[in-house]
Specification:
This protein folds into 2 domains: 2-152, Jelly Rolls; 160-246, Arc Repressor Mutant, subunit A. It has 12 helices and 12 strands. The protein has helices at residues 11-16, 109-112, 126-134, 139-152, 160-170, 175-181, 186-197, 201-216, 223-229, 235-246, 250-255, 264-269, and strands spanning 2-6, 17-24, 32-36, 42-48, 50-55, 58-63, 69-74, 81-85, 91-96, 116-118, 271-275, 278-280. It is globular and about 50 Å long. It starts with a strand and ends in a 5-residue tail after the last strand. The model is unreliable at 264-285 (pLDDT under 50). Residues 159-256 form the HTH araC/xylS-type domain. This is AraC-like DNA-binding protein.
Length: 285
């Protein structure tokens, strides 16, 4: 399976999308197996000629005799999810930034409540357009048509308050202080945030710290320094959060990844596993 990651060329899309990647079957026809760890993105995947089965913290993708489009999304998860491609299939996966999906889909809060969904079809022309893009052999044209399509669905929403709250949370202001700053109650803050971002403020912050720690690991080798650089109370706090989100300690986690790669969130996301947590990183082409 070949994976190619791209950041949007269009400036509007770059503001609301972290990026997207294309998965293309190669000649090996080998199963593709990995763990995905919690993040704060809204993840939309579209594949052709596949079928999906979901179990507790596991998603299994296999070939379908029908060359039809299937789409699914992940809006919220706090434990590792095991992904198994039994058969390689052509796929596009898009990562929308926190709150970004609201600018493309009306009433996105209805999606957040589902956490994950198969047979996702947000627009009347969605399946037809995605199928046409996936069937192309010209990557440049695929990118052009994909970005053109999502730009056609873009509608600017006034989410300035949420964007300000996101910055406050990432700056580690106390939730009560954030509510006071914006002259709203703490309860209303959490309700508004969950409706727009898809999770409570505290959960977002926990995952943000986790991801921030991974980003900074390439420059800081000592876990003690990482603890304070990423606003954990102490090292036991960081260990607890890592175990909650990855099921292993920070020491074990960092032994299994290469933090010197670009797009580190994608490398963390794409882990091959042949035995749980017996993990090696495979370079992306």
């Amino acid at each position: 399976m070949k994976i190619a990651f791209y950041q949007p060329k269009n400036s509007i899309l770059r503001k609301y999308m972290e990026g997207y990647y294309f998965m293309t079957p190669d000649d090996s026809h080998q199963p593709f197996h990995y763990l995905t760890f919690p993040n704060n993105f809204f993840i939309l995947s579209v594949a052709i000629g596949s079928q999906i089965m979901t179990e507790d913290n596991q998603i299994i993708i296999s070939h379908s005799a029908e060359s039809e489009i299937i789409a699914d999304f992940l809006a919220r998860y706090t434990r590792p999810i095991e992904i198994l491609y039994k058969d390689p299939v052509p796929e596009i996966t898009i990562y929308f930034k926190p709150s970004g999906i609201n600018h493309f889909i009306n009433k996105a809060y209805l999606l957040f409540g589902q956490k994950t969904a198969i047979n996702f079809n947000p627009f009347p022309d969605f399946y037809e357009t995605m199928k046409g893009i996936l069937e192309l052999n010209d990557r440049t044209l695929q990118i052009e048509l994909l970005e053109e399509y999502w730009l056609s669905k873009f509608e600017q929403k006034d989410l300035q308050l949420i964007e300000d709250i996101l910055l406050d949370i990432e700056s580690d202001l106390k939730i009560s202080d954030i509510a006071s700053k914006h002259t709203i109650s703490r309860q209303h803050l959490n309700t508004l945030f969950t409706k727009t971002v898809g999770k409570p403020c505290s959960e977002y912050r926990k995952i943000y710290r986790f991801r921030s720690t991974i980003e900074k690991k390439k420059d800081t080798k000592k876990l003690t320094q990482l603890t304070y650089d990423n606003l954990f109370y102490d090292q036991s706090h960081m260990i607890k959060d890592f175990k909650d989100l990855t099921k292993v300690s920070p020491q074990s986690f960092f032994k299994k990844i290469d933090v010197d790669k670009k797009n580190i969130w994608l490398y963390i996301y794409r882990l091959y596993i042949f035995t749980i947590f017996a993990v090696v990183i495979r370079l992306l082409s």
